[in-house]
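Hello K.,

You asked for the raw outputs rather than the summary table, so here they are, unedited. I folded two proteins back to back in the same session to keep the settings identical. This is the first:
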Amino acid sequence: MNIALKSPPIPGCDIPAYSPSGNECPLFESAWSRQLPLLLKGPTGCGKTRFVAHMAAKLGLPLSTVSCHDDLAAADLTGRYLLKGGDTVWVDGPLTRAVREGGICYLDEIVEARKDVAVVLHPLTDDRRILPLERTGELLEAPPGFMLVVSYNPGYQNLLKTLKPSTRQRFVAIEFDFLPRDREIAVVSEESGLDENRVAPLVDLAHRLRSLKGHDLEEGVSTRLLVYCASLVDSGVTVRDAVLATMIEPLTDEPDVKSALIEIADAVIR
């Protein structure tokens, strides 16, 4: 079943800037129009969340974003009974609210949530598109304008936190990565206000540090951190201090590794 655009972008409403790296935008639109759930995978800070915000605004859809964590349980998404003024009332969670009203429900870093979350999502991610609410006895059918989007970072997967194949195969999947050098320079310059010529060595340093991922570092420098760094430089902070605060300190607490990263930074940022 195809569905038309629910509502056009609101006049005067800003659409978050996003620089496509491939065909992810038409893929998203096609998945939404065919009522298919979407899985975004890629390293931290590569633009997954910005992409969802961009597409939601572009399609004129309400967006509910949930940052998943170790204590996030299914009830946090579906809802629970709460005491209000001496009465016990049911309060919808963000997932239930999105299913009732339509729009995009985005679960960021889904593998961080408790295992019971996947169980709740399963009937929403097949042809049934239903959300059973055991506490209220309701069986909600997702409207045509509802879309479920989840994301995770494959680099963080381990034996305890993985997305099961049975869950992954319920989604259309799009892989994200960092932009090519010239594109990333342009994006960081646009976001921070710093001239591209001054952004270029910062991006070069980020590429050097990303090559260490899996060796001395668990994760590389994100585009988000690059924007932070360029923003500090643009505000008058010295390049070395900005690099230390945004591209080295957030990556490691190990003194030896930190010293090695500083040496690399000093060699690249002259």
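The second followed immediately with the same parameters:
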Amino acid sequence: MRMIRAVAIMLTLTVTITLVGCVSYVDLSDRAIVQAIGIDYLPDKKVYRISMQYFNQSSEGGQNQIDKTQDNVLKSVGEGESIFAAAKNASMLTGKDLLLSENRLIIIGKELRKYKLGDTLEFFVGNYHSHPQAYVAAAEDTAEELLDIRFKEGSTSSQRLANLIHNASVESRNKSTYPYQVMTMLCTSTESAFLPLLTTATLKTDVTIPKETGGGKGNKGGEEQSEDGEKTIILDGGVVFKGGKELCRVDDDGAMAIFFMNDMPSEYSFTVPLGQNAKPSVMLIGVTRSIKATEYNGKVKFDVSFSASGKIGSKGGMKEDEKKAAEKVAEPAERELKRKIESSVIPIAEKGCDVFGLENTLRRCCNRFYRENKDRVGEIIAESEIEVNVNIDIFSQGIGGA
């Protein structure tokens, strides 16, 4: 018995030592800690171009805060006939092993969106080293252009862009998307998906030109002028996909509507136009959503209902007291939110695109009809009727000043 136990212990030690010896150890300082990845397609060369922002470990600012003495983030670019080959070439140029588990952001360039989005994201979904909750976003032009922009202070560019998407999602203004979420959306019959859109913008700086200098170029001295300032990046609506390829862009209202149709908004603020220069702002909380489908003679109707509590954040020129202001704003607020959602959802649905979860509703409410027509879901959605109803209970507490 003792002999058997001794042999078992020896075998265990041998296997353990062997396995440990097979694992190659790489020090963290020898790794390129990737923070953002931009993917473009170059049609003239027929190659993929990957831009990788990675953390400069010799800087003092850390991964999230800018070090003014030197760049926190370095960039490496690689090209290849596949995304894997391009990533490999970008990795070789760093002279380090890639660490993808800290990546915060994946940006898809404009040219690449002409091709199947799922083929691009397979690299990240199938790579067990990749961060599962890296945000996926679209670039107005090239992804590399966005990664070239450097900020002078505050958070690093990759952290700032990730925060931009996160904050818009928290405020129910734009849907944040992870690779596996996008791939799940692409698995629907219409292969529809949505990505938030990042675009460049130039900040305008108001300056007063001294009277004694004049100003030149026809500007009078002492007047306030606007000058181009720092180049930055903003969130500007989003991109809708059908058949896995880009279908169209949507504005901020469209991005909000897609969020409302898919997620549960925790809060949302918007302005209610009342006329006579009165534009109070309303904050919604406790938003609930219900989507039902009915079918009659082959035609489908989707009834979408939203209910929420709300309060007036600012009276925006209203002269009424708190109670009367709340009563006056409720119905116009319902109409305005209904308009925002209907004007965004219906035109997209009429194109047979489903970024709203309508196929799941059809499967749930009209299962037999769905099973008999699952090969023409896009056509059914395009021909369907969509009605949106909004109920907002405005209460007077917490009204701000005019």
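The chain has a mean pLDDT of 82.

Happy to rerun anything if the numbers look odd on your end.

Regards,
P.
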